[in-house]
Amino acid sequence: MVKVTVAGAAGGIGQPLSLLLKLNSNVTELSLFDIVNAKGVAADLSHINTPAIVKGYQPESKEDKTAIVEALKGSDLVIIPAGVPRKPGMTRADLFNINASIIRDLVANIGKTCPNASILIISNPVNSTVPIAAQVLKKLGVFNPKKLFGVTTLDSVRAETFYGELTGINPTLLKGKISVIGGHSGDTIVPLINYNTNIPLLSSDKIYDGFINRVQFGGDEVVKAKNGAGSATLSMAYAGYRFAEYVIKSLTGGDSIISKVPDSAYIYLPGIEGGKEFSEKYLSGIEFFSVPVYLTNGSISGFVDPFKKLNVSEKEKKLIDVALKGLKGSIEQGIEFVNASKL
Ligand code: NAD
Ligand code: LMR
Fold this sequence. Notes:
Helix content: 40-55%
Largest sheet: 9 strands, mixed
CATH topology of the largest domain: L-2-Hydroxyisocaproate Dehydrogenase, Chain A, domain 2
Distance between the termini: 31 Å
CATH class of the largest domain: Alpha Beta
Structural class: alpha/beta
Number of strands: 11
Number of domains: 2
Bound molecules: nicotinamide-adenine-dinucleotide, (2S)-2-hydroxybutanedioic acid
CATH superfamily of the largest domain: Lactate dehydrogenase/glycoside hydrolase, family 4, C-terminal
Shape: globular
């Protein structure tokens, strides 16, 4: 029995993500929350002949605080793509003013209603929204760092696609051969080629640099092409589902199954065994960082230390240094926002 709630289910990501979740036979209940049109999306998906029972929840007025609580009750997994997307000329950080309070309030409801749920945050700026979520849960006394994930899978998906284009390899064969670590914005995104695998190398430094740049700024390509109509939605729904599928599988596997996920997630390292030491030794004490994870029963049971396992090159080490500088301010901004908020 797995109940999954999507908050922001009627949006550009929310709808296709909910469709993919409806197709997962391990999902027994799919709860769709949005401030608009959640009931319509739920009615539509409920006609699909898979076992998940779909229910839609939307507030009847701005004052209505009950719909979110009803949606969340008993959730094992909550996925959040609620909030505004970028328009051309904006950075993800420009979304902070609107999305920070959306995440704060949704996560406060999770902390009060289903504190044991695994939480996947898609809403941008991920580098700040995940620290916001952590700080809210800390303030409420229910923070479980092993169950809070910032979804950075789209960076892995892009890395596999672009590397495949450059090498002529079927990109589906590249899963797990490029780990993307760091954060989810511009030069905080660090693709690491796993030199321990038999991955074909790019033919020149120039092509390598172009590859790194395209992964780091891949989101801009979509924002520009959509020309004011939003950012990546379909590829994000695919990526979000790819990660969620591992979490759902781990939820059905009990405590005995440990699965290594080929993708990273942006997590609070000090809450994971060995994470504090890793952060102090290699990340100048930065506490939120995306690394490949292991999952057990909806929780992070370990992570891959790239410096021990992935044969990090000198060029990659420099990329990590740049990423750390970018992450620091975004993390602090998120934490300070919650400290100044009343929950
Ligand atoms: P969208 O505008 O199409 O959909 C957002 C949905 O959120 C809307 O349906 C809206 O009604 C809903 N919403 C707003 N406030 C809400 C609230 N308080 N509670 C519940 N629902 C609420 O936007 P989108 O294209 O789906 O993008 C959503 C977010 O995901 C953006 O912040 C975007 O930047 C981010 N994103 C992240 C990644 C990633 O890799 N992590 C990738 C793409 C987009
Ligand atoms: C992406 O990487 O596509 C998302 O973070 C959306 C964006 O704003 O680029």
